[in-house]
């Protein structure tokens, strides 16, 4: 594994990529997220953990306005990325989602070739002037996703023909292709076997050099392995957030302690 | 603390705490027996004490297997993780306490003659009493998860050190008075040093109990009173 700059110095800790304050999310009359304040640091991995239904995925989806697609869903409060309010009416959600990419639980490649899966985003966003530029983007995205060696000789084959782990890395390559700044991952490994999981985790660790990553995971061991900071959600509330090593060795809130030690959830 | 969703996990943790308690009790008796064999020159008791130490080694092995198993199967976190780490270190300290007591018992056999001075015997008994008190208090702190009691144990170690320093000086005087005392006094000096080391292990345990309970390390600046390094013989 290559050397990586450590993001644990105090002066870098104060940087903020995503600043959420007083965020509320309602599904109809259900108050799903209550008063969440969190600052997420650039070029690091932040893990959201918590029992099912705690709101961690819902909150993740507010960061690229995926909740806009749900009619009964209403978001209040403020979420700033680089100081800009992403819920400002002037913001185009499609452009926002190019800047804030997302990877889902189940690998969901388009029913297209491996090449076209990765090229799709750059094409619709007009990121390449010609075929050779597009080739370049596809190749570098697949390289960054650690998939190039496995994919370079079968770029014309359907993405859906790959193994589950390869498909998930293809989805990560697809997310990277539009040159995002933030990558949201909603349980990206829960459908993968341990080896494929390890590859994705290795990839996440490499990606944090260039991207801000927020990952929702049900596996506390995964949160402990891949993240620098961890946030624990419970019943729609952000209970505790801090350096990952502190959350897993010396959590301050009893609810966090009970959850990570397997006492409820 | 409330119980784990998986109840067998609780049973495993309880079993480890039980093993530590058993080791603690055994370590205490081993020390008591070794010193009483020394003071009364009871060779029979000394031999029995040496045997007793073997059980501590066995228990340490059992705990290590249990700890490795629980780490592999449960991936303990938070307070559980600290408890597991503490159990590993505390059991090691207790095993060392047993070794030190065994060493005292072996010296009883090596000395194999009545102690020259009643006063010396009283000195060794006194430091043993203090060290054993420390051991007992820290084991209680472990069982009750009492960080404050653990902190006090560490503070009190300076008393053990102070007694050791004075015993050291006393033994030097005896050796200077009559060279025929040297063999016995040298053995006694090692015995006293062993007992003083038992106090240090109690301190180690105290630090681990404190960390286990609070998640914080005790600050390093502990008063040091063992001055034997600077005494001019």
UniProtKB/TrEMBL annotation, chain A:
GO BP term, pick one: phosphate ion transmembrane transport
Kinase found in the keyword field: no
GO molecular function, one term: ATP binding
Keyword Lipid biosynthesis: no
Lineage top rank: taxon: Bacteria
GO cellular component: membrane
Cited InterPro entries: AAA+_ATPase, ABC_transporter-like_ATP-bd, ABC_transporter-like_CS, P-loop_NTPase, PstB-like
Pfam families assigned to the protein according to its UniProt record, in alphabetical order: ABC_tran
SMART domains: AAA (SM00382)
Domain ABC transporter residue range list: 18-260
Alphabetized CDD domains for the sequence: ABC_PstB_phosphate_transporter (cd03260)
Keywords from the named record: ATP-binding, Nucleotide-binding, Phosphate transport, Transport
UniProt record similarity statement: Belongs to the ABC transporter superfamily.
NCBIfam families, per the entry: 3a0107s01c2 (TIGR00972)
Protein name: Phosphate ABC transporter ATP-binding protein (PhoT family)
Species of origin: Roseibium hamelinense
TrEMBL record, chain B:
Limits of the PhoU domain: 20-108, 125-209
BP GO terms, sorted: intracellular phosphate ion homeostasis; negative regulation of phosphate metabolic process; phosphate ion transport
A Pfam family it matches: PhoU
Main location (coarse class): cytoplasm
InterPro entries named in the record: PhoU (IPR028366), PhoU-like_sf (IPR038078), PhoU_dom (IPR026022)
Entry keyword annotation includes Transport: yes
Keywords, sorted A to Z: Cytoplasm, Phosphate transport, Transport
Gene Ontology cellular-component annotations: cytoplasm
Record's subcellular location: Cytoplasm
UniProt record similarity statement: Belongs to the PhoU family.
Oligomeric form and interacting partners: Homodimer.
Function field: Plays a role in the regulation of phosphate uptake.
Official protein name in the record: Phosphate-specific transport system accessory protein PhoU
């Amino acid at each position: 594994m290559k050397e990586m700059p450590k993001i644990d110095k105090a002066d870098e800790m104060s940087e903020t990529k995503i600043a959420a304050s007083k965020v509320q999310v309602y599904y109809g009359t259900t108050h799903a997220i209550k008063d969440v304040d969190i600052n997420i640091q650039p070029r690091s991995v932040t893990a959201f953990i918590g029992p099912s239904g705690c709101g961690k995925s819902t909150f993740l989806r507010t960061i690229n306005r995926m909740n806009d697609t749900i009619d009964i869903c209403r978001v209040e409060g403020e979420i700033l990325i680089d100081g800009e309010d992403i819920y400002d009416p002037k913001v185009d959600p499609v452009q926002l989602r190019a800047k804030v990419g997302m990877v889902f639980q189940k690998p969901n490649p388009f029913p297209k070739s491996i090449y076209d899966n990765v090229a799709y985003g750059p094409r619709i966003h007009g990121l390449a002037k010609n075929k050779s530029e597009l080739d370049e983007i596809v190749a570098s995205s697949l390289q960054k996703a650690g998939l190039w060696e496995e994919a370079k000789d079968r770029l014309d084959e359907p993405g859906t023909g790959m193994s589950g782990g390869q498909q998930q890395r293809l989805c990560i390559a697809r997310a990277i292709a539009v040159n995002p700044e933030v990558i949201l991952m909603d349980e990206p490994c829960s459908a993968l076997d341990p080896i494929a999981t390890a590859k994705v985790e290795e990839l996440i660790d490499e990606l944090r050099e260039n991207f801000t990553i927020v990952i929702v995971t049900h596996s506390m061991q995964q949160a402990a392995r891949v993240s620098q900071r961890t946030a624990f959600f419970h019943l729609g509330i952000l209970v505790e957030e801090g350096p990952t090593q502190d959350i897993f060795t010396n959590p301050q809130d009893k609810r966090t302690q009970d959850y990570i030690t397997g006492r409820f959830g | 603390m409330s119980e784990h969703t998986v109840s067998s996990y609780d049973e495993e943790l309880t079993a480890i705490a039980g093993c530590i308690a058993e080791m603690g009790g055994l370590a205490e008796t081993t020390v008591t027996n070794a010193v009483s064999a020394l003071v009364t020159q009871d060779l029979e008791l000394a031999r029995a004490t040496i045997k007793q130490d073997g059980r501590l080694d066995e228990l340490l092995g059992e705990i290590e297997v249990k700890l490795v198993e629980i780490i592999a199967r449960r991936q303990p976190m938070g307070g559980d993780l600290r408890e597991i780490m503490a159990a590993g270190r505390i059991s090691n300290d207790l095993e060392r306490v047993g070794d030190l007591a065994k060493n005292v018992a072996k010296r009883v056999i090596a000395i194999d003659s009545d102690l020259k001075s009643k006063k010396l015997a009283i000195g060794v008994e006194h430091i043993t009493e203090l060290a054993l008190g420390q051991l007992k208090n820290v084991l209680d702190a472990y069982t009750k998860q009492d960080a404050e009691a653990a902190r006090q144990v560490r503070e009190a170690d300076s008393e053990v050190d102070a007694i050791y320093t004075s015993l050291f000086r006393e033994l030097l005087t005896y050796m200077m008075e009559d060279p025929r005392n040297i063999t016995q006094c040298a053995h006694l000096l090692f015995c006293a040093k062993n007992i003083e080391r038992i106090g240090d292990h109690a301190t180690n345990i105290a630090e681990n109990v404190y960390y286990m309970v609070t998640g914080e390390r005790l600050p390093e600046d502990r008063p040091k009173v063992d001055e034997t390094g600077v005494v001019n013989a």
